[in-house]
Amino acid sequence: MDVELYRQMVRMRAMEKRAYDLFLRGLVKGTSHLSTGQEAVAAGFAAVMRPDDYTFATYRGHAHTLARGAPMAAILAELMGRGNGLMSGKGGSMHLTSTEHGMMGSYAIVGAHLPIAAGAAWSAQLRGTEQVAVCFFGDGTANIGAFHEALNLAAVWQLPVVYVCENNQYMEYTPIADVTAVERPAADRAAAYGLERIVVDGNDVEAVYETALTAFSKARTGGGPSLIEADTYRHGGHSRADPGTYRPQQEVEDWLARDPLPAYRAKLLAAGIDEETLAGIEDAAARETDEATKAAEDGPVPELALIERDLWADGGAAWRN
Amino acid sequence: MDVELYRQMVRMRAMEKRAYDLFLRGLVKGTSHLSTGQEAVAAGFAAVMRPDDYTFATYRGHAHTLARGAPMAAILAELMGRGNGLMSGKGGSMHLTSTEHGMMGSYAIVGAHLPIAAGAAWSAQLRGTEQVAVCFFGDGTANIGAFHEALNLAAVWQLPVVYVCENNQYMEYTPIADVTAVERPAADRAAAYGLERIVVDGNDVEAVYETALTAFSKARTGGGPSLIEADTYRHGGHSRADPGTYRPQQEVEDWLARDPLPAYRAKLLAAGIDEETLAGIEDAAARETDEATKAAEDGPVPELALIERDLWADGGAAWRN
Amino acid sequence: MAQLTYRDAVARGLAQELRRDERVVLIGEDVAAAGGVFKTTAGLLDEFGPRRIRDTPISEQAILGAAMGAAMTGLRPVAEIMFSDFFGVGWDLLANQIAKTRYMAGGQLSLPLVVRAANGGGLRFGAQHSQDVANWVMAVPGLKVVVPSTPRDVIGLLAAAVRDPDPVIFLEAKGLYPVRGEVPDGEITDTLGSAVVRRAGQDCVIVALGLMVPRALAAAERLARDNGIDAEVLDLRSLVPLDVRAVLDALERTGRLFTVEENPRLCGWGAEVVSICAEEGFTSLDGPLVRITTPHVPLPAADSLEDAALPSVDRIADTIAKSMD
Amino acid sequence: MAQLTYRDAVARGLAQELRRDERVVLIGEDVAAAGGVFKTTAGLLDEFGPRRIRDTPISEQAILGAAMGAAMTGLRPVAEIMFSDFFGVGWDLLANQIAKTRYMAGGQLSLPLVVRAANGGGLRFGAQHSQDVANWVMAVPGLKVVVPSTPRDVIGLLAAAVRDPDPVIFLEAKGLYPVRGEVPDGEITDTLGSAVVRRAGQDCVIVALGLMVPRALAAAERLARDNGIDAEVLDLRSLVPLDVRAVLDALERTGRLFTVEENPRLCGWGAEVVSICAEEGFTSLDGPLVRITTPHVPLPAADSLEDAALPSVDRIADTIAKSMD
Ligand SMILES: Cc1ncc(C[n+]2csc(CCOP(=O)(O)OP(=O)(O)O)c2C)c(N)n1
Ligand SMILES: Cc1ncc(C[n+]2csc(CCOP(=O)(O)OP(=O)(O)O)c2C)c(N)n1
Ligand SMILES: [Mg+2]
Ligand SMILES: [Mg+2]
């Protein structure tokens, strides 16, 4: 299991770094929001999920999508607007979706997916499938109305949904503390929905994993929702355009020193995993990334006919006869 | 002061009863939402307000409007769609507004006025006027997104605004407990905004008054917002169309036994206020109500030209040249 | 055949679909125990139980989000938004999420859901409970929009909406709730995107929707009687999909087209219909294309003002008579 | 005279008004310390301080509500909604509260506020960050709507919006942010509701707005060069108030009118313009009124798809050439 967690984090990191390179090379044309530094959250949660569980993510969802099993090439191709992208280029980096992998979408308007995740959980509850929905969101999202409505509904209906606030300390450029009435935007509000206050070190992948395990078992066995706040930090800026210079140098350094990857690597080594295994994982991720990049770069320009395709379930977009 | 509180409650009660009669007579044509039974909240708060303070109310706002000094005749005329109505018939019962009395509007979409009240408070703060805004809303409103956003903003900006949840135990027909994750929809969430938990017996007008006094002084002196939950009960149904039969008989009786008016009357008598004074107040209110009714009934049908008036500040409604 | 009110037709239509398909569920404020504030869901809790008929908090974003999440995972939810004006508080869910997600996902998921709401004026409820928002939803790619004008259509189009694999906004003309109409026994189904000629006519066509349909019909009678004008009345029934063929066909046959819209003027559905006619039906035009709408103002509350603001039978007939003079 | 980008013109326009009137304040997400995610508010915090330039939480309802409450009590707030797509989360405040309150109150209060937002496509941001919602706001009685197409207009129309006593939605075409244009020195003011002829022409008029204005101009040049068609280009600049006189005048002079809309097709502003022309300008029509719009779909993210979906210079010119053939 341990090595698996590491492998996932390494893959995420490699992909996000590549996404950044591709942006610098002018191949990622729209925006993109990397989660470099936040890998432990995505890895820890994905590891406890059943294949038929549901993930709902934000625009900062590349890693979550990868973690559920979507092919890296399709993700990178989507970022590059290619026809072999995960959604054929129609969604873009902010909307990664792979329903066959339980990735029910990445949502780019803050807060919207919290009630949607509640709906998926409600459906699972009603259908009696013991599926669980997990919904990742940022610290800034805890101040928007949809957060409040979703949490209340989830609690009242005792839905099998796990809400995970990835507190990376900033909304876009504004420190979360400047705009939030409580210290912890999510955890300090759990009580407002009759929920337990749960905070986890989001850079400690095993801690995340344990926390996820508890929340998922609870949800799966009818125990209702959880709200978890995971402390973490994004190494880069908010989005591709942002160098992140508004952050104090010391703060950045402190958090870089807590980078989840080297930390976990050291822990694994200390636990007796040998260097070759880890290096092998890293090499494999690098190869996977290179191959995915090539497949994405080789991908075709999407057919223009896609513009009027798949608005409706009949595959088309006709609004008239 | 005491007798003043009683007078206000008596006037409110008389007006609301009359509004109900007028509805039965077919003269109130749209909907209307009475606050019979909830008078102590409106009276207690109005009593601590400066003339230049701001009130924001819901569609259940007749009493709050009267309490700020708007003429009863204009209120009843508005309910009846007359040209001498408070807003010439353009708003109707759900939107009573009298800016000259600090009544900044009654809002009919649940939650909307909470951020608006924050805005008025922000303006007062910025202009340095020591004005305070008060915002009344129902228990059901504590579950909507705007509640969350407004409370957070008010707390972060330390705004001079007092949020008052009139918990009358029901949204329209649904008991609030059925749809709320905590026992007290407002008070149990105060901590989520770093605010003190305040509950008051909303049928005890003096308790309300004291609570209001504290919150207003705090707001006026830069101490920031308060969130107060006042327990109360509406004697009638949600709106004119609703007989309120979904409520357990025993519950209704218990609350009727706690009617704020007779309770306070008894207290005043016990405190040595003489019967004549109280009877005089009641008679005056009855007379005021009769006169107001007559003035309202005698009011003209609004001019049709009003339809295209006052959309814009220039008095007109032109969207083109 | 039975006489049923438009209001009762809603409950009957819902019951028909709830019986047919286990996946159909209904949520909304006061829809269960209370049977809806307009009593359009009366009896459903008793028959289908609290698993399938659920009261919600006052949380329109949560209602719409729940419907969306449930639709993409195997249910066929019907969400009630009590008044369509409240689409405002859930507009992101409607216009940005429900409408766009299938497209953005390249068709990976479907959203077979219905959002029902009491729409429009006539009840003296004032500006925040009376607006006709048909054009709000029509303007959003990814939403289908249905507005029935008769009890029979309520059932048939509701069935079509529930069975449709895409999100359908089902607007109930609340001014029509008490109106009765003939409804056949047994299952009723219908198709989206088909307009119906309510009155045949040769001189012009009045295109109408929802609450305006009976008024257009009454105006047509008045025009026939007083002005010798034989007006056709076309009930659009759905705005998306739009039965453009029926519109252009009526224009071609009559040469004159009028729209009667309950919405305030700007960017109403009538503008869209007119713009189609002004391009594709240009050679059929025997005179101006004229829109009859509520003025571009919020709806006033007083009965006299509301009546004067909404297109009335007289205003419809007078406008047409004058324009055809 | 200076060359200024559209982006910098926003900051300059805001600064001009902030200097002029103490009551003007600016709030929004990341507008203060960060100078705005599009850098349209850069430098304002330094000059005007944190009392007047304030960062907010991610709470669009609170932002719009705060602006409304402040406007009715003596301030002249400018609220930034980062992307106009996010109007969805604050739509109740915009469409039901800000728009209707003055009217419902019988004119007792005024709401002198501006809501600014980056609007429309061209940046490959995908369907939830690219939509042109000009028609959403145009459809709501009680909102004025402005969409500048040049840096100079950004400043002048922003000044007019801030000074206007009513709520104005100020849509910045984000595809134009990097575009430069001539801007005179000193104070710039302008008036709402006045369209501008950007290119005179005799054969037809192309009515355009925002991002579509430069494209319409380029198409007009192409039409002149390749097809011998002399097209006038009318930049509407504001949708409410609408300069109907300018539109009808151009139609009368040319006999043919085309609209170029960035919004998806249904119920776009062009439909409204066309419907006015089809009624009031009927006798001037020498041919069909034709709308060129984005297809009625959400905007796809891939650069190739976005470019093909939005009206391009070629599509505009080809459509007009074909229609005038
Ligand atoms: C409703 C809404 N408002 C504003 C934005 C613009 N925006 C995109 S991301 C973001 C910051 C979100 O912060 P947080 O929730 O902490 O997530 P993070 O980006 O840090 O992962 C903002 C303001 C948006 N997408 N949606
Ligand atoms: C956003 C919105 N949703 C629903 C409604 C319909 N509605 C009007 S009043 C009401 C109940 C409100 O309950 P509460 O907040 O407790 O206030 P009360 O009526 O009890 O004073 C509802 C659901 C509305 N007006 N606005
Ligand atoms: Mg964050
Ligand atoms: Mg209540």
Query: Which ligands accompany this protein?
Result: thiamine diphosphate, magnesium ion
Mean model confidence by pLDDT of chain A:
97
Q: How much of the residues of chain A is beta strand, in percent?
A: 5-15%
Find the biggest chain interface. Answer: C-D, 54 and 54 residues
Tell me the Rg of chain A in angstroms: 19 Å
- How many domains is the backbone of chain C divided into? 2
Oligomer: heterotetramer
Topology of helices and strands:
The complex is a heterotetramer, with two copies of chain A (321 residues) and two copies of chain C (325 residues).
Chain A lengths: L1 H23 L14 H8 L7 E5 L3 H6 L4 H8 L23 E5 L5 H15 L5 E6 L6 H12 L4 E7 L30 E4 L3 H16 L5 E6 L17 H8 L3 H11 L4 H23 L24
Parallel strand pairs in A: 1-2, 1-3, 3-4, 4-6, 5-6
Helix pairs in contact in A: 1-2, 1-9, 1-10, 2-7, 4-10, 5-6
Chain C lengths: L1 E4 H15 L3 E5 L15 H9 E3 L4 H12 L4 E8 L7 H8 L2 H4 L9 E6 L14 H5 L5 E3 L4 H13 L4 E6 L6 E4 L12 E4 L4 E5 L3 H16 L3 E5 L2 E3 L3 H11 L2 E8 L4 H12 L9 E5 L8 H7 L3 H11 L2
Parallel strand pairs in C: 2-3, 2-4, 4-5, 5-7, 6-7, 10-11, 10-13, 13-14
Antiparallel strand pairs in C: 1-8, 6-12, 9-11
Helix pairs in contact in C: 1-7, 3-4, 8-12, 9-10
Bound molecules: thiamine diphosphate (TPP) (2 copies) and magnesium ion (2 copies).
